[in-house]
Amino acid sequence: MCWKEQVVTGRSVTGGKLTELILLGLNHQTEHHLFPQTPRYKLRRITPRLQQVCEETGIHFERASFIQTNRDILNVLRAVAAEAAGRPRAVEAIEAQIGAGIGD
Questions:
Q1: Which of 23, 47, 56, 97 has a CA between 20 and 30 Å from the CA of residue 38?
Q2: Residue 104, pLDDT above cutoff 50
Q3: pLDDT at 11 over 70
Q4: CA-CA distance, 24 to 34, in Å (whole number)?
Q5: Residue 63 forms beta bridges with which residues?
Q6: Where are the domains of the chain?
Q7: What is the pLDDT of residues 24-76, one digit of tens each?
């Protein structure tokens, strides 16, 4: 996978030191996948340059808060469960919420 695909398919979680502690420094998921040999405590140093390169090349660099990331995960899990239960209307409603950015 090329670096652009790594950036587009990844998401880094924003937050302070508590977020870093809870996620063991892997809140910099995109940076970690681009530079897997980099020690976790140094990943935050990569972020500003990565953001700059993404802006210059027109690549979307996904970053979201810890709370928003978990909301998104729960919405996807609800949609999968509704689909498995054979409830297409529920799937459509959840997908509409995800697309509308509910919780932003």
A1: 56
A2: no
A3: yes
A4: 17
A5: 12
A6: 3-61, 67-100
A7: 888 999 999 999 999 988 998 999 999 999 999 999 999 999 999 999 889 88
pLDDT at 101 over 80: no
- For the record, the structure tokens of 86 come out as 């054979």
CA distance 36 to 29: 10
Q: Read out DSSP for 9-67?
A: H--EEE--HHHHHHTTTTT-HHHHHHSTTS-GGGHHHHHHHHHHHHHHHT----EEEHH
**pTM of the model as a whole:** 0.69
Longest dimension (CA), the chain: 46
What does the block give as tokens for 39?
């020690």
The predicted structure's pLDDT at residue 102: 46
Name residue 33's amino acid: H
Asked if 19 and 27 count as a contact pair (C-beta separation under 8 A), the reply is yes
If we measure between CA atoms, which residue out of 93, 98, 33 comes closest to residue 68?
98
The identity of residue 28, as a single letter, is: H
